[in-house]
Amino acid sequence: MFVWYALLFVMKRGAFFRFLLSMKLVKSLYGNGLWRRNLVFLLPCLLFAYPILAQSENNFIYSHGAIIRGDQSQKQIALVFTGHEYAEGGTVILNTLAEYHVKTSFFFTGDFYRNPGFQHLIKKINNQNHYLGAHSDQHLLYCDWIDRDSLLIDKAVFIKDIKDNYREMSKRGISPQKATYYLPPYEWYNETISKWTQEIDLQLINFSPGTRSNADYTHPGMSNYLSSEEIFKSIMSYEEEEGMNGFILLMHIGVGPKRKDKFYDLLPVLLEQLQTKGYQFVKIDQLLRSSKN
User: Fold this and answer.
1) pLDDT digits (tens, 9 = 90+) for 255-271
2) Could you list the residue range(s) of the whole structural domain that residue 18 is in?
């Protein structure tokens, strides 16, 4: 009897259960009826993973302390662009956003904010009332790619790097008090990084898993290269199968000269198709408003 009550509790936490259903293993178990036979195995996994992936009272999904998806009861998407070295897509992206009446969010490194060639673009983004946030100062790698719990920096370096990033933002009229969501460099972090972020009154966020939008930086010389058509299909296929309510969809404002097939050129059709499906594009602070109340 306890098993069934515990399972009912977990299933009522809708955001977490929907997230688990999006995972191929659980989806296959649930979809073909084997979940009944695997209940004894599955339930402990659910209860163990719940504090890590769904520590939320507002229907958000968390991973390693970062918000990775907003309220799934709302048909909203936060489109976010990161920037460090490149910004060749900036003008195209801003023109497209204006054409489709979309407000979105940009997370830049301190190096990006300091770059003399990007000043006009930053000012234009700010004047158009998009969200401008921090992405670290020097684009540091916080933890090992294989052993995620192994930190590559200490707390002092972490805090100094973030403060330097926000200092550059302040110089350009971007209030740190209005930019409290922080997107980590490489979109790679761990529980310790999340804890340090919270200690300086910031909230760590990351992209929602499930699509390949963040692969728009890859080029043909890379083993993980994906064409813009493949990226686009991954987004629309995920939307068709799972839905994208509360989604944080990450792209890059620039990807450099090695990639000729720029995904931001497909931004008009992407926005049009998702808007046709009823999605509203909002800034990250609107999507996650209740998390900072």
Assistant:
1) 999 999 999 999 999 99
2) 2-54
